[in-house]
Design goal:
Blueprint: E1 2-7, E2 10-12, E3 18-26, E4 28-39, E5 46-52, E6 57-59, E7 67-72, E8 77-82, E9 91-101, E10 106-110, E11 114-118
Parallel strand pairs: 2-11
Antiparallel strand pairs: 1-3, 3-8, 4-5, 4-9, 5-6, 7-8, 9-10, 9-11
Length: about 120
């Protein structure tokens, strides 16, 4: 069993910043990659950013230059620093990870989501 728990969401004004965290726990041997996705009301869930083992990263075009994904391997935690936030960034943000368990199986695990609202 593995669990992902997000935190750090909230209400922020346009142009402001927030830092999301996602901590993985459970029977973890290693984590291949960790992603952030988001889902706005009435829209499909969309990819935001990925960080692989090491420092290799990918970003959606809509967040490049404004969001930064980072990872603390010792804590099995991924972060999403969000700057210059826009109203269109309003969504529930979800963490996803591909985890190799101590039983040597590979799981794709999702967190419960954290709400980010950008509004004046």
């Amino acid at each position: 069993q593995v669990h992902l728990v997000e935190s750090g969401g909230g209400l922020v004004q346009p142009g402001g910043s927030l830092r999301l965290s996602c901590a993985a726990s459970g029977s973890i041997s290693s984590i291949n990659f960790m992603d952030w996705y988001r889902q706005a009301p009435g829209k499909q869930r969309e990819f935001v950013a990925r960080i692989r083992t090491g420092t290799s990263t990918n970003y959606a075009d809509s967040v490049k230059g404004r969001f930064t994904i980072s990872r603390d391997n010792a804590k099995n935690t991924v972060y999403l620093q969000m700057n210059s936030l826009k109203p269109e960034d309003t969504a529930v943000y979800y963490c996803n990870a591909e985890i190799v368990t101590t039983a040597r199986s590979i799981l794709s695990s999702w967190g419960q989501g954290t709400q980010v609202t950008v509004s004046s």
